[in-house]
Amino acid sequence: ILYNQAMNEYGLRHLGPARQHLEQLVKESPAHPLARRAVIDLARISLDQREFDKAVDRLLPLADSEGADYERKAARDLLLKTLGELQRFKQALDLLEKWHAKQPGDIDLSRQLASFYLQSGKADEARVLLEGLLERTANREIFSDLLQLAIKSGQVEALLNTIESRRVRYRNLDYLDFASDCLLALKQEGKAIDLLRQAPETQNFVPLLSKLGRMELSRNGIDEAQRLYRRILELAPEVLEYRKSLGRCLILQKKEQEAVEVWREALKKTGASRLELYQFLIDSLLEHKMYDECLKAFQEARVGLGNPGLFAEERAGVLMAVNR
Predict the structure, then answer these.
(1) Staple partner for 259: which of 207, 247, 254, 281, CB 3.0–4.6 Å?
(2) In angstroms, what CA-CA distances link 80 with 35, 65, 161, 170?
(3) What are 38-82's pLDDT values in tens digits?
């Protein structure tokens, strides 16, 4: 009850009463499951009142506690955000290095540590940390952090060479993903395309096929992009974004009716929201100003979903566009 009262007061921006309820909860029932969450909310109130030191003091014991529960993670994230905004980088680094030593495989913690290394001007430490973690995990987010660091420091080629030299430590799919992104960052799109085209793994892995399709479209390789997106839909027919991309290729090939048929095939999906599927069809048609098809789709949706007022605003916009 105290916690709910506090949240109601906080929602109304009555910070004083909210703080009183939370402090009472923490004092009277420190072992209650909501007590740890109340500490975090007390810290937020302190931040709202610009009592930064008090917020840090409230968060530290919880952030430094044992047990990997949600509240400890939330306390750590808020504490690190606060220390970063206060530019207390040394304090944040000391905490992160201690936590990382206990949990060296924690990806989120490692990324936060690398981020604070960068903010403290320790780019080499950040790079070494991320490279080591990438070798052990092949995590996509870790690679993205490394690539952004390399772009900022002008060391993308060095990163590519590192990935090449350690290729045996990655799955082929991960290597192809990382190496092609490095080549794109180096403005070597042709080499990235050749790398993915020549790898047999690409033909059965949707993320790489999608990347290859986007690159082909960007350099006007429409026929090849269309072939790639058809292959993608064979592997992942339920993903609407790929269906939209195939239709876009067909539009560029002046095959408007075929594009409409590809988008309409989405309506045959089972287990999906009919409203969502009609929304996809209408959005695709509107994007390419296919107004007659839009009007048909509006009527079909209204009848099919039993709602005569459905898509009223969109229909009005189309009627205005065709001067009706």
Answers:
(1) 247
(2) 21, 15, 33, 32
(3) 999 999 999 999 999 999 999 999 999 887 678 999 999 999 999
pLDDT in tens, 108-141: 999 999 999 999 999 999 999 999 999 989 999 9
* CA distance linking residue 319 with residue 324, whole number of Å: 5
CA angle 70, 73, 77 (to 5 degrees): 140
0.85 surpassed by pTM: no
Contact 6, 21 (CB under 8 A): yes
Rg (CA), the chain: 27
Structure tokens at 249: 């290729």
- What does the H/E/C string look like for the chain? CHHHHHHHHHHCCCHHHHHHHHHHHHHHCCCCCCHHHHHHHHHHHHHHCCCHHHHHHHHHHHHCCCCCCHHHHHHHHHHHHHHHHCCCHHHHHHHHHHHHHHCCCCHHHHHHHHHHHHHCCCHHHHHHHHHHHHHHHCCHHHHHHHHHHHHHHCCHHHHHHHHHHCHHHCCHHHHHHHHHHHHHHCCCHHHHHHHHHHCHHHHHCHHHHHHHHHHHHHCCCHHHHHHHHHHHHHHCCCCHHHHHHHHHHHHHCCCHHHHHHHHHHHHHCCCCCHHHHHHHHHHHHHHCCCHHHHHHHHHHHHHHHCCCCCCHHHHHHHHHHCCC
Report CA-CA distances (Å) from 202 to 79, 136, 173. 43, 23, 8
Euclidean distance between CA atoms 229 and 214, whole angstroms: 10
